[in-house]
C-alpha cells in the first residue's frame, strides 16, 4: 500500500475521494487569491 503520511489517515477516514476534493479546494483558494491580487493591482492604476 502507498504510504502518504498524514494524507493516509485522511483517506482512511473519508475514502479515496478526499484527495481530489482536497486538490480542488486548494486550487479554488489559489484562484480566489489570484483574483483578489488582480483586483488590487487594477485599482491602484
Q: Rg from C-alpha positions?
A: 16 Å
- Tell how many strands the DSSP assignment holds: 0
Outline = elongated
Strand content: under 5%
Structural class: mainly alpha
Helix content: over 70%
- Count of helices? 2
Mean pLDDT: 81
Low-confidence stretches: none
Reading the helices and strands in chain order gives HH
Largest beta-sheet details:
none
Span between N and C termini?
Answer: 54 Å
Explained architecture:
The chain crosses the membrane at residues 17-37. Keywords: Membrane, Transmembrane, Transmembrane helix. With 45 residues, the protein is an all-alpha fold. The termini are far apart. The chain has a domain at 14-43. The chain is elongated, with a radius of gyration of 16 Å. The protein is built from 2 helices and no strands. It has helices at residues 6-14, 18-43.
Concise overview:
This protein is an all-alpha fold.
List the helices and strands and how they pair.
Blueprint: H1 6-14, H2 18-43
Keywords: Membrane, Transmembrane, Transmembrane helix
Transmembrane segments: 17-37
Please name the defining characteristics of this protein:
single chain; 45 residues; mainly alpha; 2 helices; 0% strand; elongated
Amino acid at each position: 500500500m502507498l504510504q502518504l503520511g498524514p494524507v493516509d489517515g485522511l483517506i482512511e477516514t473519508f475514502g479515496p475521494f478526499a484527495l481530489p476534493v482536497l486538490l480542488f479546494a486548494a486550487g479554488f483558494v489559489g484562484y480566489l487569491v489570484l483574483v483578489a491580487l488582480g483586483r488590487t493591482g487594477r485599482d491602484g492604476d
